[in-house]
Amino acid sequence: MLKTYFGSCHCGDVTFAAEIDLTAGSGRCNCSICTKRRAWSVIVRPHDFRLLRGEDKLSDYQFGTNSMHHRFCARCGCAPFGEGDIPEIGGAFIAIAVNCLDELTPEELAAVPVSYSDGRNDAWRDQPREVAYL
Is 55 exposed, middle or buried (0-12, 13-18, 19+ CB in 10 A)? Predict the structure, then answer.
């Protein structure tokens, strides 16, 4: 069920709201940037996301195919969300960092289902052989 969640970067300069169904699951990936950041995200469509504050505080990082904008706060360095458009996974999306959602209890975080993607080998629908480090 969709619920409105609020989130932010560490310093609070960037804040957002999003309609998310956490019971639908989240993802972790073994691509180079997700591995280094230990990224854990939920995917929403752009119409379910609202940047409330801090557009002028966001920096952008792209690499590879430039199909993803990895957004991060220029002040604290936290990466609360990213934007992409990848036809193979349904087109335009926002990837929200689960750990940047405010006011979730440890129990709520622990209950979020997680699936794994083999982004390192561009096999996004496959689970990597090893996931414990993700």
Answer: exposed
Q: What is the pTM of this model?
A: 0.91
Residue 132, in any domain of the structure: no
Sign of torsion over alpha carbons 10, 12, 16, 20 = positive
Query: Can you give the CATH number for the domain in which 96 is found?
Result: 2.170.150.70
Q: What pLDDT is stored for residue 86 in this prediction?
A: 81
Query: 52-92: per-residue pLDDT in tens?
Result: 999 999 999 998 888 889 999 999 999 999 999 988 778 99
Query: Does the residue 61 lie in any domain?
Result: yes
Domain membership of residue 130 (yes or no) is no
Strand (E) or helix (H) holding 23: none
Q: Looking at the domain assignment, is residue 30 inside a domain?
A: yes
Give the tokens for residue 131. Answer: 């996931």
CB 37 within 8 A of CB 63: no
